């Protein structure tokens, strides 16, 4: 078992958490393990890619961004067969939606380790756009703006707290004016949209954690992506309301929110109020769009994981 620890996760406390709470239990249970620490996404990807030669279980220690890096490394190794290498997640990052909501891993480190050692193995779908994989969400628009404020402009917003990570940046964006973009969307199921949006997110599973559960019947193993489009509205409704799903249901009734289940989606961005590409993010981390036309697809049951 290999633990890949993102040293920057949990306000740089991830390594300390592993050494004080996880390593002693591993030794007590006589588990054969190794660990490596990483500082960058590229390091985590390379560690995971190289791990398939030696390890059958690879654990991402950090948040959603760390899970994405480790999963990307495993998938890009090119030698994976179903069940050959299994990925797990120790949720000690700023945002842990994938580990907590999709994999059902407990937040408490010791309880999480119990699941990683005794949990069930299952195969999950993986989203892909271009050469980039996503396990939870690929978002364009306001979610990317929130990530830009929280990660690049105000680093203190990386605290694992909904107000710091989401609502405070959203308030700042609402005050300065939210960006919009014109888009054409077509899916392989026959759905289509053309118009102005503030939000275009594609989810693998139920949604984006407990604060944005958009599809209660969704699963990361159902072979379907769920795209959610929201037209130009006041962002204040996102920030002020305690329940975002209630807001989105009301928007859907008004024809301002659109839900498209699909296996493959074609997107063309025609214009952005930013004067360039709109903000974007993958699994909680900023992502730079480089083309105005691209596809989003699902890779069914592409990765084996440990689940609670």
Automatic annotation (TrEMBL):
<dbReference type="InterPro" id="IPR001206">
    <property type="entry name" value="Diacylglycerol_kinase_cat_dom"/>
</dbReference>
<dbReference type="Pfam" id="PF00781">
    <property type="entry name" value="DAGK_cat"/>
</dbReference>
<dbReference type="InterPro" id="IPR017438">
    <property type="entry name" value="ATP-NAD_kinase_N"/>
</dbReference>
<feature type="domain" description="DAGKc">
    <location>
        <begin position="1"/>
        <end position="132"/>
    </location>
</feature>
<protein>
    <recommendedName>
        <fullName>DAGKc domain-containing protein</fullName>
    </recommendedName>
</protein>
<dbReference type="InterPro" id="IPR050187">
    <property type="entry name" value="Lipid_Phosphate_FormReg"/>
</dbReference>
<dbReference type="InterPro" id="IPR016064">
    <property type="entry name" value="NAD/diacylglycerol_kinase_sf"/>
</dbReference>
<dbReference type="GO" id="GO:0016301">
    <property type="term" value="F:kinase activity"/>
</dbReference>
